[in-house]
């Protein structure tokens, strides 16, 4: 998968050199390009923002550097990439969305700062690519960089070969519609706390049943909206 990121803070993404995603890049599973939006400005101050038409607080990102950045990344000869603008005004990012995006060959993340990007950039991008506004949830970040990092981690680990043992992907929270069960390792007693005895029983059916009960109980207590509605009988 090819991933391009446009940002005024390219150094934010140096952490993508390490861990699982770093390995995926070294092995060629992920080809990452980080682009400094200011490299597409032509004034002495490398200006990327200006005051909003119509007034209001804050600054808006100017369209011209964005247009040049997108033109440099999107090759008209390739199949249209998917351009994601992280925004609290977007659709909420989910595991289902991560799974779907993991199948796309080329993702472009446009990280806005300030009060957002001139809307014409989004409209222009939609003529060259499939464009989505995507939010991490109902809270406000200062810009799209941290949201982009979270999405790339969620998407990247679903690319075949990135996670060593693909079975570790299937039992996780959200993959089965329920939260994950609690996990334990050695020692069997730690600071007077025992591991639930069923996990030491060797009874695989009983362990599977206990884990499923734990998943339902956790989901009911923390995220009841994830449970299927009770049957009306
Ligand atoms: Cl994607 N961007 C920003 N700036 N704030 C957010 C967000 C995204 N998701 C939640 N809050």
Automatic annotation (TrEMBL):
Top-level EC class: transferase
Gene3D superfamilies according to UniProt: 3.40.1280.10, tRNA(m1g37)methyltransferase, domain 2
GO cellular component: cytosol
Positions that bind S-adenosyl-L-methionine: 112, 136-141
A Pfam short name: tRNA_m1G_MT
Keywords recorded for this protein, A-Z: Cytoplasm, Methyltransferase, S-adenosyl-L-methionine, Transferase, tRNA processing
Domain of life: Bacteria
Domain tRNA methyltransferase TRMD/TRM10-type residue range list: 1-227
Record localization: Cytoplasm
Primary localisation category: cytoplasm
UniProt-listed InterPro entries: Alpha/beta_knot_MTases, tRNA_m1G_MeTrfase_C_sf, tRNA_m1G_MeTrfase_TrmD, tRNA_m1G_MTases_N, tRNA_MeTrfase_TRMD/TRM10
A GO MF label: tRNA (guanine(37)-N1)-methyltransferase activity
GO biological process: tRNA N1-guanine methylation
Catalysed reactions, as listed in the record: guanosine(37) in tRNA + S-adenosyl-L-methionine = N(1)-methylguanosine(37) in tRNA + S-adenosyl-L-homocysteine + H(+)
Enzyme Commission number, as recorded: 2.1.1.228
Record's subunit section: Homodimer.
Family per similarity comment: Belongs to the RNA methyltransferase TrmD family.
Function: Specifically methylates guanosine-37 in various tRNAs.
Protein name: tRNA (guanine-N(1)-)-methyltransferase
């Amino acid at each position: 998968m090819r991933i391009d990121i446009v940002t005024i803070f390219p150094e934010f993404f140096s952490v993508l050199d390490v861990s699982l995603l770093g390995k995926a890049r070294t092995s060629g599973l992920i080809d990452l390009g980080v682009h400094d939006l200011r490299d597409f400005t032509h004034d002495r101050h490398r200006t990327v923002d200006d005051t909003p038409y119509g007034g209001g607080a804050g600054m808006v990102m100017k369209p011209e550097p964005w247009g040049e950045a997108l033109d440099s990344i999107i090759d008209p000869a390739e199949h249209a990439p998917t351009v994601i603008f992280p925004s609290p005004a977007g659709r909420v990012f989910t595991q289902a969305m991560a799974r779907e995006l993991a199948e796309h060959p080329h993702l472009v993340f446009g990280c806005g700062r300030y009060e957002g990007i001139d809307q014409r950039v989004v409209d222009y991008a939609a003529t060259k690519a499939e464009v989505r506004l995507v939010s991490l949830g109902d809270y406000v970040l200062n810009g799209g960089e941290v949201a982009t990092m979270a999405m790339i981690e969620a998407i990247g680990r679903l690319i075949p070969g990135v996670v060593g043992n693909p079975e570790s992907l299937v039992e996780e929270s959200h993959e089965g519609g329920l939260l994950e069960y609690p996990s334990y390792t050695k020692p069997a007693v730690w600071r007077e706390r025992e591991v639930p005895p069923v996990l030491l029983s060797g009874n695989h059916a009983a362990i599977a049943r206990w884990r499923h009960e734990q998943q339902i109980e956790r989901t009911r207590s923390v995220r009841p909206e994830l449970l299927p509605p009770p049957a009306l009988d």
